[in-house]
Design brief:
With 1023 residues, the chain is an alpha+beta fold. It is built from 31 helices and 36 strands.
Amino acid sequence: MIEIVLIEDDIYQTHLVRELLPEDKYHIRAIASGKEALAFVLENFNSIDLILLDYHIPEIDGISMLESFKENNIDVPVIFFTADYSIENAVKTMSLGAIDYIPKNIDFVNSVLLAIEKAGRLIQSNQERKTIEKALKESEERFRIIVETTRDGIFEINLLEKDFFVSPNIMKMLQYQPEQFPKNYNDWLQIIHNDDLTMVLGKYRMLLDKKNNFQTIEFRVKNGCGDFQWILQRIIILERDNYGNPYRFIGTHIDISELKNAEIKIKETNRQLTTLISNLPGVVYRCRVDYSITFEYIGNRIFEIAGYKPSELVNSPDMWVNEIIYPEDRSKVNFYMRDALYSRTGYDITYRIVNKQGDIVHLADHSKVIADNEKISHYLEGYISDISTKYTAEKEHRKNEMRLEALLELNQMQNADNRSIYDFILASSVKLTGSKIAYLVFIAPNKLDIEVIGWSENARKEYWTENVKTKFIINDLGILADAYKSGQAVIHNEFNDPIPMQKGIPVGQLEINRCMGIPIFENNNIVGILGVGNKLNDYNQTDVKQLSILIQEMMKILLKKSIEFALRESEMLKQLVLDNSLQAFILLDPLFNIVTFNRIANHRSMMLFREPLRNGKNFIDYFSTQRGYILSKLKKVISGETSTWEMLHQINDQKNYYQISAIPIIENNEIRYISWTSNDISDRKSVEEKIVYSENLYNTTINSIDEPILVIDKRLYIMLANQSLIDLHKEFKLTEYPVGKYIKEVYSFVSDSYISELIRILDSGNNKETEFSFEFKNKKYFYELKQTPVVQSDEITRIVVIARDVTDRKMIEKNILNTIIETEERERKRFSEDLHDELGAMLSTVKIYLNTLFGRNIDDAKRIDLIRLTNELIDQSIQNSKNIANNISPNIIKKFGLEAAVQSIIEKLNVAHDINIVFKHDAYEALNPEIELSLYRIIYELIHNTLKHAHATNISIALNKIRTTVELLYSDDGLGFDFDKIQKSSVGLGLQNINTRINAMNGFLQIENVSKGFSMKLLVPVN
C-alpha cells in the first residue's frame, strides 16, 4: 500500500485523483488547507510515500510549501501540478526537489497516472534502499555487540587501503595501551617472535597465493610488558579484487598462553617418562597365569614405586590384586587380565595402587601373554611404570581446561541475574576443586554480621534443612570465617591437628573434614568469602588459584552490572527529575533549535503559544510579538554570557510572570548547547504587589494615627517613626529624623532601667505599659508608653512603642483628687457642725436635766416635767442623728428606690425655698445601688448649685429608662454658667464631683449653654 498525501483545495480534482488510483494499491489523504497540510507532513513525513501538490492552495502556495519541505529536510517525492503552467514555475519546482511538474490540461489524467507510476518505481527503490540500510545497520550493530561481548580479539587488514584495525580486546589481551599498539601491518610483524615470524609469513603467503581461504596459526607476540604471549590466530579472506586476488582479511586472536604452557609441561613430562623408560625406571615383571597374578619376578624399582620389596610380592598369591591395587580399580584389572588370557593378546591399562605408606600411586601396566603353544597361555609379562607425575599433569591440564570453560561461560552471563551467577560460581567451585560442597557468604557493612547467601547443589541435597541458620555474627562462624579474619586464603586439611584460628563450626551446620576459604575483595575491602569443603584429598595452592581467578571474573561482572544499573537508574532519575520539575527546561543547540525539553516546558508552550514543542524546530519561531527581544537575549548567551530576565505573558485578563535563565553550556572551549529554564513567578509577583500595597497601607495607617508611634529593632535602633512622632520631635526640639539611630542617641533622657526593660520585653515577648514624664520650658509633660513585641517566624523581631499624651488627664486627676479632699473636708465640717450645733446642744441639755433629776431638793411635779422634757430631747436627738446619717447615705434609696429619694428631697426643698421643682419619671425596676446613689448625689448637687448660684424660679428633672440606658434630663431658668470653664477651674468643686461620678459610671454628659438658664442631658448604661 502506497501512502499518498493530496494537497488540493478543488474537490473535483480531488475526486478525479481518487477515481484514477485504485484503493487496494493507494491510500490517499486529501488536505485542502495549506497550513494543515504543512503541519501534517512535518509530523508524519516518515510514513508518507508520495505528495501530490497543487500550486494554488489556501494560506500557503505550493512553491512556499516546497521551500518549507526543503528547509525541514523532508525526503518525500513530490509531484507538482497547476492550472497556470509556466516554464519558470516548472524550473523552480524541480530545483526545489519536485520529481515532476504536470499542467492541468487535456492530458492531465494520463500525465498524472504516468507520473505516479514513475514515482512508484522511485518509491520502491527508496523502500528497498531503506530495507538494505536497516539490514546493514542491524548487521553492524550485531557485529558491534559481538566485538564488545566476546573475550576474543578481532582484527582486520586491508592491503589496498593500508588499513589495520584491531578491537580493544586485543590491546587488553596483549597488555598494550591504545597509543602503544602497532599502527599498521608492518608494525604488527615487528612484535612477532623471530622464531615464529617465518612460519607466520608462510601462512599469510598461502592465503595470498590462493592456496587457502582460511588459516589457523599459533605463534608468540611481544606484549606491552615486554614478555611473549602465545596467541591462536584464525584468519579468513573477507574480500577479493576483480582479479580474484585477496586484499581484505578478518580474523580473531585467542590468548592460549596458559594452554601452551600446560602443553609444554605435558611434553616435558612425557620426555622425562620416555627417558625413565629408556633407562628402565619402571618395573619389569612376570607372573603365572593363575588369575591371581602371582609374581614369579618383579624388578627392584617396585620398592621405589610401591614401597614393597620384591621378596614381599614374589610367590604371594592375591596380594597384588586384593591388597595393593586400589579397591575401586580391582574389578577393572581382573577384567582386562581375563580378557587378555582368553584372547591371548595382552593389555595396556592404567590403575591405582595403595603403596605401603598408604598413598595412592598411578601405574601404567603394559603386558602381553606368553604362550608355549597356540592353545595354552602360561605367563603374563609386562612393564609397570609410575605415571603419577603424568597423571597429575594431565589432571592439571584438565583443570585448566575446565577453568577456561568456566570463565568463558561466566563471561557469557553478563545479563544473568545475581542469583544465577552465584549458583554458577558454587557449581564451578565444586567442579574445579573436586569438593563435595561449596558455600558463598557476604559480609554486612557493619563488619560484624555475615550471611550465607548460597550453598552448592550437593550441599543443599545432602545437608540442607529448613532449620539451617543462614545469618551469623562473624565471631560465631568459626573456621568458616578464617579467610575474612586473616585477609587471605585459608586451608584446613587436617582437623585433628591444632588449628590456631579454629573455633569450631556453627551448631547445626554440615560436617566438614577439609575446607578452604578464599576472601572476596572489592576496592581493597573484604566483602565476602567463597568456601569449599570435604575434598577427598588435601587442598593446595592450585585450588586457591582456580577459585581466585573465578572470584575475580565474578566481581568484574558484578561490578559491571552494578555500574550499568547505576547508570540506568541515573538516566531514569534524571528524566524523572526533569519531567517532575516545576521548572520548565529546554535544551537548544547554538542555532537555537530544540534538542530536548521536559514535560512542564511542553505544557507551558501549549498554554502560551497554543503549540507543542518539537525537537529540531527553531525556538525563536514560537515567539511572535517578542521575537527580536528573545533573539537579542540568546545572542548574548552565544557570546558566552549568562542571561536572566523576567517576562510577562497576558492571557485574557490573567497576567503570568516568568523568570527566564539562559546559560551557555561549553565543551572544549566551544558553546555546545544553551540551557533555557523558565520559572513561574506569578505568585511571587502577586505577593510582592500585595506587600507593596500592604506596606503603603501600613505606612498610611501609621502616619494617620494621632498618637506618636515608634518601632525599634532588636538592637534598639529606630526602624520607623510616624508623622505624629516627627511633629512631636519638632515641638520639643529633638532630632528631626530619628530613623536609623540608636534610641538613646535620639532620647538622651531615657534611663538605663528603661533600656533594660526593652531588652526584657524582647526576651520574654510580653507586652508592657509604663509611664514617662519630662519637663520642657518649665512645664511637666506626662506620657503613657505601651510596648508591644512583634513576632515573625516564631522570633521576636521588633518592638512597637505607642506614646499617649496624658498630661491633661493627669492635671484633671490632680484637680479631682483635690476636689475629693475638699469635699470630704467640707462634709466632715458640716457633719461636725450638725453634731455640735444640734445633736451636741441637745445632749448637753439632756445631761443638765438628768443632773437636776438626781438633785435632792426637787418636787415630784418638777421631776415629772423634767423627765418629759428629757424624753422629748432624746427623741429629737435620735431624729437629728437619723437626718445626719441620711445626708451621708440616704436609707430611703435602699428601702424605696431612687425615685422616692429624689421626691423626698424635692418635697423638703419646696417647703423651705421659694422655687418650683417638677420631677417626672418612668416606673422601672431598681438599678444597681451604686448607680442609684451616684444619680442621687448628682441630682442633689445640681439642685444645690441652682439654689446657691442660679437664682432660678423653676427646676425641671426627668428620669427615664431607654432600653439599657438611664436618661437624666435637668434644666433651670436661672442665670446660666460656662460648665467647661468652671469644671477646669479650682472653684467648681461640685461640678467636678459630678464629672467624676459620671466617668465612674461610664456615662455620657451633654451640656447646653443658653443665654438664660442651664440644660443638661446625662446617659448612663444600666450594666
